[in-house]
UniProtKB/TrEMBL annotation:
The lineage of its organism: Bacteria, Bacillati, Actinomycetota, Actinomycetes, Mycobacteriales. It holds the Pfam family FAD_binding_3. InterPro entries: FAD-bd, FAD/NAD-bd_sf, FAD_aromatic-hydroxylase. Its EC number is 1.14.13.114. Residues 1-308 form the FAD-binding domain. GO terms for molecular function: 6-hydroxynicotinate 3-monooxygenase activity; FAD binding. This is 2-polyprenyl-6-methoxyphenol hydroxylase-like oxidoreductase. It comes from Mycolicibacterium aurum (Mycobacterium aurum).
Amino acid sequence: MIERYPQRRDEGQNVDIRGAAREVVRRMGVDADIRAAGTGEVGTRFVRADGSAAASFRVGSPGDTDGPTAELEILRGELSRILIERTADGTDYRFDTQLTGVTEHGDGVSVALADGTSLDADLLVIAEGLHSRSRRLVTDVHVNDLGMYFAYATIPRDGSDDLWWEWQHATRSRAVHLRPDNLGTTRAILTFISDVRGLDELDRDSQITILRSTFADVGGAAPRVLAALEAGAPMYFSVAGQVRSPQWSKGRITLLGDAASCNATFGGAGTSLALIGAYILAGELAATADVESALSRYQRVMQPFADAAPRVRAGVLRLANPRTRNGIRVLHAGAALAAGPVGRAVAGIAGRGVVNLGADRLPLPDYPRAG
């Protein structure tokens, strides 16, 4: 396992485990670990600048994954910790290095690394994410930039924080989010939509300057988040994007997770699809000695899960992040209706399955357990 960061990354925001991915973590034997390390988030609440609630969506009963907050909510860093701890004895983890060259030969691949070492392997799995630089080894595809920027920050918890995901809308398609974690801090997100591209490629100081200017007139939680960033709070800045690679494998090199198919870099699907994809890839490789045949079948079996992911469109992002005060009022009124008894009943009949990745329609294949 090659990772260019110097060590396991503790930072990161909430990720969801939904639909068939819940069965994957159960079969992996890490379900209890993930539940024990959950963020404790009890639901999503739309709030006004004065902190009052406009609408609240409490997480459903076990097995109900349709709402914004999933049954299994865990920090990305905590999920990474669990997976590394469970695999450390049998896995060679190499941090602070990256691929510099790949050579395929008849029965495997040879990989050159930036630290001067090299590796020989049966196959190379590229799981670098949406903006994968190694994806070109398999296919050359365009990443669709949706123009919505995210500044993720870890800030000190204060007495006003609770176990709700608080979502504060502001005019000009801006928003401030506060989410609980299980580590004694609060996870904050500043989002905004812009026609300017490339802001995610700037340095941290330039990005904070942009955030300060963009959120200068926003009250509520915004000043607190900006102050924390100014004080050096950890931040990750990204832009929402999409990619659909028509080809997931070439020879003995294959793509996994967002590197293969990403409907958006948020929305509750990416982590779940990565877990499902890893399970199917491992199962197909275990089922046959023909690696290239297994890789071909991996895409065929996994494709329906990727296709069932929630569709995210730029227009939908703008509807969810209104530009005007009236737009925010309309959104809040609609959310309050949807959160009420009648709205929840209608959604349960007409909209079930929007976020649950086809959990009921797409059962996981069964594979024999190794060993």
